[in-house]
Amino acid sequence: HLPSMRTPTAMIVGLVLCPCGLLLTLTATLAPNWRQVSHIPNQPIDLILEQGIWDMCQEQQSTHNRLCGQADELGYFEQVPVSVAQGLMPTSLVLNLLGLVVAALGVRCWRKEPRHLLAGVAGLVLFLSGLLSLMPASWYTHELWALPAPAGSTLVVGYSLVLSYLGSCLEILGGLALTLSFHHCCKER
């Protein structure tokens, strides 16, 4: 008879994926690159405008001169998908931190047995956190080409949007892994 592992694999998976998701979501929230606008008429050919949910930067590729805090002349920040992202992304981050604290209390490797109910609740909170960051990223992607941009310019997805998707998926998967702890609660009853 083999000794039982202290921490179930699903809990370890959850505790690895969710902090990674947190870092990616944090970067996506803060970095001003949800969308890149290039080939802007009457501007240097190598000028790229990077639009985030809090800031706008322009960079000239040949000189790597980067200026942030650009004026929002087209009302980009007033758009609903941007405003929703400004609300939901920080909310997701706070929920993720809360979920990780609860998960740490539930998994607690220094105890003989993990607290399965607590770990399961943490999983639900982390799953919700992932959904809250996935929603604005999805909506923004759907509206990417409809959001205001200089006429005739080229629009592409920025790295922050990609990081937001990756972070959300890691949080959702990590949260689901932790919710498997509820299975143990049912077995104990």
From TrEMBL:
One of its GO terms (cellular component) is plasma membrane. It comes from the Eukaryota. It is found in: Cell junction, Tight junction; Cell membrane. Keywords: Cell junction, Cell membrane, Membrane, Tight junction, Transmembrane, Transmembrane helix. It is a multi-pass membrane protein. The chain crosses the membrane at residues 12-31, 93-110, 117-139, 159-182. Coiled coil: none annotated. InterPro entries: Claudin, PMP22/EMP/MP20/Claudin. One of its GO terms (molecular function) is structural molecule activity. Pfam families: PMP22_Claudin (PF00822). Belongs to the claudin family. This is CLD23 protein. The gene is Cldn23.
